[in-house]
Amino acid sequence: MQRFAKRLKTLRKEHNFTQKNLADILGYARTTIANYEQAARFPPIDTLFEIANFFDVSLDYLLGRTKIKNTLQDILLNNFNIPILIIDPQNGKIIDFNDTALNYYGYSQKEMFHKNILEINQLDQYIISQKMKQVLAKKEMTFSFPHKLASGEVRNVIVFSGPVRIDKKTVLYSAVLDFTQSDHSIHNTNQAAHVFLSIFNSKFPFLKDHHDNVVKVATSIAYHLNLAKKEIDLLAASARIHDISFLHLPTELLSKPSFTEHEYNIIKEHPGYGYELFNNLNENIAQIIEQHHERLDGSGYPDRLKDEQIRIEARVLAVADVFAAMNNKRPYRDRFNMEAVCQELIDYRGSKYDQNVVDACLQLVAQGKFDFLKD
Fold first, then answer.
1. What's the pLDDT score for residue 70?
2. Can you point out the beta strands (E) in the chain?
3. N- or C-end of the chain: fewer Cβ atoms within 10 A?
4. Residues 189 and 337 in one domain
5. Is the pLDDT of residue 342 over 70?
6. Measured on CA atoms in the order 236, 237, 242, 247, is the torsion positive or negative?
7. CA 59, CA 45: separation in Å to the nearest integer?
8. Could you give the CA distance from residue 268 to residue 274 in angstroms, rounded to a whole number?
9. How many Cα atoms are found within 13 Å in the side-chain-facing hemisphere of 149?
10. What confidence tier does 282 reach under pLDDT thresholds 50, 70, 90?
11. Omega of the bond prior to 302 within 30 degrees of 0, cis?
């Protein structure tokens, strides 16, 4: 709390704001800013994001965890070896890009700054405009588009696009993946996952280890069960991105200790979003992600599947997700101890959770294989 208070005060003074100026701009009372700077109060997670976006710094910088002011724009443009475009959704103008995009499309920096996505994307302009409106409304989405290079060659690409706030304006980022020379769809999915995980971890720092932990737990269980290599590969790829669709949800929902019925219904939509996001890359992985909240007794979501209707990879992922999540601290609660986590699995063994999967998990716990979660 002290580091946040000090960093907020420093940022305010760097921008020559009084406490009242900043409070008026953000729509808070002056005493709220004063309390934050005196470490008398700590803001909720959605307020933290609002302040970080306002000052155009990363959440980690605002919290005093780093001296590097990496913004979301920095993360998008400087951390990936795939083409990234920043697009104004109002007119399709390309307003920023990374060096990889210049190399891929074959334009100079000056030429790219004069380009419009309506020139590069070879679909009808009306359709492209509608797609951009869809992304603004639905958050992250996946498309298959024909993109024209400077040479005149047209490539079929997968585009992951979503809205971001940069310089107080909502723009679209587009991560462009060209799999022309690769038919390894799991590898392709992992490439795409790298983009989303970086965005996910910057938006939800308290969940930054969750996907890695679930991968470790899920694959350990899978090996213990002697699943086929193909099933293990699909499970690992799915576990690595199973909750990426949280990007579709209001940030504040993931920081709440309880939900209204309406809020819970919104949360239950995220497996379906995950399916839509990755279905263009690998239907098996998309299906596993969609099913990871299904339960054997039909009490899960989104489709209330039962027993063998649920893929084995999804049954393993369900247990691994619950196990890792309960062992992880959240903004609204401390982590559970290992005994309580195991008791949850025992209580619902054979009803909600696959009994063989639960037994394998408990045996691995007894062997100390998951002690890394206690650190």
1. 54
2. 84-87, 94-97, 141-148, 154-166, 169-177
3. C
4. yes
5. yes
6. positive
7. 10
8. 11
9. 15
10. confident
11. yes
CATH number at residue 248: 1.10.3210.10
For residue range 151-201, list pLDDT tens digits in order: 999 998 888 888 877 656 788 989 888 866 555 566 667 767 777 777 777
Among candidate residues 206, 223, 204, the one with its CA nearest the CA of residue 215? 223
Identify whether residues 242 and 292 lie together within a single domain.
Answer: yes
Measure the CA–CA gap between 237 and 194, rounded to whole angstroms: 11
Q: State whether 256 and 361 are in the same domain.
A: yes
**For the chain, the helix, strand and coil percentages under 3-state DSSP, each to the nearest 5:** 55, 15, 30
pLDDT over 70 percentage in the chain: 86
Cross-sheet strand order for the sheet of 141-148? 94-97, 84-87, 169-177, 154-166, 141-148
* Cα 132 to chain centroid, rounded: 20
Residues 252 and 131 in one domain: no
218-262 pLDDT per residue, tens: 999 999 999 999 999 999 999 999 998 887 776 677 777 788 888
Count of CB atoms within 10 A of residue 120's CB?
25
List the beta strands (DSSP E) in 167-302: 169-177
- CATH number of the domain where residue 100 is located: 3.30.450.20
Q: Alpha-carbon distance 171 to 55, whole Å?
A: 17
pLDDT for 276: 79
Query: Ramachandran region of residue 330, left (φ > 0), alpha (ψ -120 to 50) or beta?
Result: beta
Q: Which residues of 76-105 are buried (b: 16+ CB within 10 A; e: fewer)?
A: bbeebebbbbbbbbeebbbebbbeebbebb
* CA dihedral for 122, 125, 131, 136, sign (positive or negative): positive
Model confidence band, residue 204 (pLDDT cutoffs 50, 70, 90) = confident
